[in-house]
Amino acid sequence: MKIVQVLLYSASWCRDCREAKRFLESHRIPFTEIDIEETPGAAEEVLAQVGKRAIPQFVIDGEWVQPYRPGCGFLYAEMSARFGLNGAAALATPRSK
Questions:
Q1: What is the pLDDT of residue 1?
Q2: In the CATH scheme, what is the code of domain 6-91?
């Protein structure tokens, strides 16, 4: 796995954000979570960087990345590749209901 600095822009009410957080935690990828509802200026920063109010957003070593696709959900294969995770275990992230 590559060593990277990761920020996760999220909100407590966001289901896709919870899935993104589970992905990072399940692969022991250290991250800093920024809740756009609780952090002054965070929602505006997302809008300024990506042109829309879309969360979750990862900032990986300074690069803004949307880890999900509307209608498709979390992009496990793409995020696993981006973080340098290998094998089927990288794609398997438990889902909670």
A1: 55
A2: 3.40.30.10
Question: What are the φ/ψ torsions at residue 8 (nearest 5 degrees)?
Answer: -120, 110
Q: Are 58 and 35 in contact (CB under 8 A)?
A: no
Which residues of the chain carry a pLDDT beneath 50?
88-90, 93, 95-97
Are the CB atoms for 56 and 17 separated by under 8 Å? yes
- d(Cα 83, Cα 97) in Å, to the nearest integer? 25
Torsion of CA 88, 32, 22, 44, to 10 degrees: -110
SS3 for 41-84 is CHHHHHHHHHCCCCCCEEEECCEEECCEECCCEECHHHHHHHCC
CA 88 to chain centroid, in Å, comes to 20
SS3 category, 23: helix
